[in-house]
Structures are given as C-alpha cells and as structure tokens.
Known about the structure:
By secondary structure, this protein is mostly helical. Helices cover 38% and strands 0% of the residues. It has one domain. The chain is globular.
Amino acid sequence: MRGLVGSIDDWPALFQQAYNCLKPGGWLESYEVSPIWESDDSEIPKDSALAQWGKIFVEGGKKFGRTFTVVGDKLQRKGMEESGFKGLNEFDIKVHAVAASFILLRKGYVRSDMPAK
C-alpha cells in the first residue's frame, strides 16, 4: 500500500483488513511520506514555502478527519502490530531534493518542456 496519507480515516482498521485478507505467510508493504520537510545540514526557514507546505496539509487533514502525520505518529507500525503482523521491518529513506526531482522527471510525473516562470 502506498501513498494513502490523507485518505484513510482509520489506519488500524485498514491494517486489520489487510491482515485478514492475507494468507498465512503473506506480507504487506506500506509506504507513506511525511509532508514535513526536514534537512540534516541546515534549518529550513520557517517562512519558506517548504516549511509552510507541511503545516497546511496537517491543518487541512484535521479539518476533514484525515491525518497527514502517518509517519510522525508511527501509525503504520502501530496498526500492523495491533493487527497481528510479525517480523516488522521499518526504514526511513532520505531523499535529496534534486535527486527526487530527477526521479519524478524520469517517471513522467514532471514535464521537462514546461516553461520556467
């Protein structure tokens, strides 16, 4: 399951349904991202667009009953553990902003022929 952040109102129920659908020995992958931008080598200015981006998503999610803090609140791990999943592996993946842009471009999510503003 990927990219469901902001669309699920009951994460534990989602993982319970997934667990119930798997055959014994089956496995589940859940991949979500945080809307909060972070940097290892410098602070992101609080008034920057990147800093505001995450706040807007978190606040908006609260207004319509969907969380965007799945990663920060560890809802995936909690939901899987409560549902009976065993042998959980968890990875934090850091992505360089330039590398992320290149990957999106190669996959066709961003067009290179768009005019610059």
